[in-house]
Design brief:
This protein has 317 residues and is of the alpha/beta class. The chain is 55% helix and 11% strand. The chain has twelve helices and seven strands. A seven-stranded parallel sheet has the order 3-2-1-4-5-6-7, with helices on both faces. Helix 2 crosses helix 10, helix 4 packs parallel to helix 5 and helix 5 runs parallel beside helix 6. It is globular and about 65 Å long. 37% of the residues are buried. InterPro entries: NAD(P)-bd_dom_sf (IPR036291), Sc_DH/Rdtase_CS (IPR020904), SDR_fam (IPR002347). Belongs to the short-chain dehydrogenases/reductases (SDR) family. Keywords: Oxidoreductase. This is 17-beta-hydroxysteroid dehydrogenase type 6. Pfam families: adh_short.
């Protein structure tokens, strides 16, 4: 019985490997719009797709970021300033893209822009932190998608939304995790609703990677600021010892982030160029072999594994 099961599993993965190796045709004629290209995954993907010959349209938050990207790429790549929190900026970028793609439509939309301000426990964070994070990571992503969707539908193209492993199993970063759970839900619904139009929707769920969002010094300074600005009763509840231990745990986690961004951008590229893209891509070894399996365990067991090394608050019962 086990031999038959092993053979079936092997055949499944062999068939999937064969299907996923098939590449769409005429890639050099296809336009891809990427948000958040100043740094990190977006910047790396823009350069990667440009090398492959696709027509990259890169949305950058700053002119400095746009200029640096243009200096690193070919003349095919074009940039536009985009703030995903502003409706007028999204509308202007959409018109800019429409002028360039014409009747061909937009083959690929990669929603990559994001922020991470969840440095601390859930009740340490101000409500503005939740709102600002959701405004960029979720509402901005939704608004960009809805604005660009007619162009993607015309090309029967692809939408690639950057989620996170924290959108699969949340254990820290309350505001960020909430936003990524929303991205997962929106993507699932969109994928099912757009299948009749020939549009494919994929999610990329990165694990821990070293980008501007996970800069060690900046992250630890923001965590200290969050703690210092917390109300007195919160500090009494948790205690300085808890914060110090929590700070050290987060520092170790951030310092352990992978520097190989290709593990993420290769997933994005596959979602854009494969004839049979996946609905979900778990990027990174810790995502694939720890967090994803952990998400399938009973909740009580997952809770124990994730929190067994956490410090106890001063007023813990």
């Amino acid at each position: 019985m086990w031999l038959y099961l092993a053979v079936l599993v092997g055949l499944f993965y062999l068939l999937r490997w064969y299907r996923e190796r098939q590449v769409v045709s005429h890639l050099r004629d296809k336009f891809v719009f990427i948000t958040g290209c100043d740094s990190g995954f977006g910047n790396k993907l823009a350069r990667q797709l440009d090398l492959r010959g696709l027509r990259v349209l890169a949305g950058c938050l700053t002119e400095q970021g746009a200029e640096q990207l243009r200096n690193q790429t070919s003349g095919r790549l074009q940039t536009v300033i985009l703030d995903v929190t502003k409706t007028e900026s999204i509308a202007a970028a959409t018109e800019w893209v429409k002028e360039r793609v014409g009747d061909r439509g937009l083959w690929g939309l990669v929603n990559n822009a994001g922020v991470f301000h969840s440095h601390g426990c859930a009740e340490w964070l101000k409500i503005e932190t939740y709102k600002n994070t959701l405004r960029v990571n979720l509402v901005g992503l939704i608004e960009v998608t809805l604005s660009m969707l007619p162009l993607v539908r015309r090309a029967q193209g692809r939408i690639v939304n950057v989620s996170s492993i924290l959108g699969r199993i949340a254990f820290f970063g309350a505001a960020y995790s909430c936003s990524k759970y929303g991205v997962e839900a929106f993507s699932d619904i969109l994928r099912r609703e757009l299948q009749h139009f020939g549009v494919k929707v994929s999610m990329v769920e990165p694990g821990s990677f070293k980008t501007a969002m996970t800069d060690v010094q900046k992250s630890l300074e923001m965590m200290k600021q969050t703690w210092n600005e917390a109300p007195a009763h919160i500090k009494e509840t948790y205690g300085q010892k808890f914060f110090d231990a929590y700070h050290d745990i987060m520092k170790q986690g951030i310092m352990g982030c992978s520097t190989n961004l290709n593990l993420v951008t290769d997933c994005m590229e596959h979602a854009l160029t494969s004839a049979h893209p996946r609905a979900r891509y778990s990027a990174g070894w810790n995502a694939q072999f720890f967090f994803v399996p952990l998400s399938y365990l009973p909740t009580s067991l997952a809770d124990y594994i994730l929190t067994r090394s956490w410090p106890k608050p001063a007023q813990a019962v």
